[in-house]
């Protein structure tokens, strides 16, 4: 795998594009490019990259739902000492995510201005999107993988020796078959479904995408009415995968992506479920609503050509009581919540209703 051409937008919303900054193709459905660098970092090092604390750097962006997953899982498992993290800013151009949040506009560990540079080190003619999350080998400066579903699964399974004491089991053996089914439907119909609506190139494509999305959301509303978590009675990665879409629903997807049958706040079970997770350490304290809105409304110029970022919605309801405790369940199973967020990784107070 390797780097994208300069006429293909960077970021996490990759499909078949013909000009920089354009995410919709007239007359066509949105098709996500799911070809990623599949190299794995494993305990036995079978792909040439063994688990080694301090060697690898997770490059993420709080704005991106796929990267937000990796940030949440890293924090829940307590991998902060084992895997460092660099954060790109919320916006990017057609070439790459950039480190404009860092002094001098360079990642302080890798010394690069653009994530693209790490992809080019892996493959100089890399033709695909420069996506986050990505894991970079700090000994070479080259990307190891950007395969986002595998990254978080491997955090749970391959990095187990380096988990914090009390880390939850996000991939419980007894629920993996059910998780696979739920994860597949959540990804195709919800995580990617909102993009299929937002980047539809025709009314017909949009109508089909809209119906698919709301069929799935209605299924989730029913499923979560009498159960606290998606699979089993503890938080699993299935919950992480759904949460990052729900957190962006009212601020972005409802209006910007035209997913507007209901707001999340109008779906009792899903809204309470989302608040339950948000108020759980590791979820809300990694969610930056300011960066989320900046990313979508500024980067997607063909959908929002003015680049105006809306002031709303009011986020204070995210910290209201959710009442989900009555359904039972143990958020961390036999484990414990993660400790306080490190000062260097805290979300700014003006970007979250958490205090």
Automatic annotation (TrEMBL):
GO cellular component, as recorded: cytoplasm
Chain spans, region Disordered: 1-25, 314-355
UniProt-annotated site: Lowers pKa of active site Cys, residues: 253, 296
GST C-terminal domain residues: 161-296
Molecular function via GO: glutathione transferase activity
Residues binding glutathione: 97
Compositional bias (Polar residues): 1-13
Pfam families: GST_C_2, GST_N_2
Keywords: Transferase
Catalytic machinery residues: 64 (nucleophile), 195 (proton donor/acceptor)
EC number in record: 2.5.1.18
Highest taxon of the lineage: Bacteria
Name under which the protein is recorded: Glutathione S-transferase, omega
Originating species: Actinokineospora spheciospongiae
């Amino acid at each position: 795998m390797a780097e994208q051409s300069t006429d293909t937008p960077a970021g996490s919303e990759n499909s078949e594009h013909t000009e920089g900054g354009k995410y919709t193709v007239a007359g066509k459905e949105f098709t996500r490019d799911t070809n990623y660098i599949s190299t794995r970092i494993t305990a036995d090092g079978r792909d040439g990259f063994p688990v080694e604390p301090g060697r690898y750097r997770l490059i993420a962006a709080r704005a991106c739902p796929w990267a937000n997953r990796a940030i949440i899982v890293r924090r829940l498992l307590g991998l902060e000492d084992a895997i460092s993290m660099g954060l790109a800013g919320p916006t990017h151009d057609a070439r790459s995510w950039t480190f404009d949040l860092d002094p001098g506009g360079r990642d302080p560990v890798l010394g690069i201005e653009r994530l693209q540079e790490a992809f080019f080190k892996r493959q100089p003619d890399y033709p695909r999107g420069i996506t986050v999350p990505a894991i970079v080998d700090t000994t070479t400066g080259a990307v190891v993988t950007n395969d986002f579903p595998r990254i978080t699964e491997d955090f749970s399974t391959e990095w187990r020796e380096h988990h914090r004491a009390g880390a939850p089991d996000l991939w419980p053996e007894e629920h993996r078959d059910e998780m696979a089914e739920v994860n597949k439907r959540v990804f195709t119909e919800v995580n990617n479904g909102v993009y299929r609506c937002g980047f539809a190139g025709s009314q017909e494509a949009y109508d089909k995408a809209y119906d698919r999305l709301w069929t799935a959301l209605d299924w989730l509303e029913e499923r979560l009415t009498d159960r606290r978590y998606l699979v089993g009675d503890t938080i699993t990665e299935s919950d992480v995968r759904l949460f990052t879409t729900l957190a962006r629903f009212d601020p972005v997807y409802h209006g910007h992506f035209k997913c507007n049958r209901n707001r999340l706040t109008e779906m009792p079970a899903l809204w309470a479920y989302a608040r339950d997770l948000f108020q759980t350490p590791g979820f809300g304290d990694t969610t930056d609503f300011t960066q989320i809105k900046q990313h979508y409304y500024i980067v997607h110029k063909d959908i929002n050509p003015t680049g105006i970022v809306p002031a709303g919605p009011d986020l204070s309801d995210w910290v209201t009581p959710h009442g989900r405790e009555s359904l039972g369940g143990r958020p961390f199973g036999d484990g414990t919540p993660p400790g306080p967020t490190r000062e260097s990784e805290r979300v700014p107070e003006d970007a979250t209703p958490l205090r």
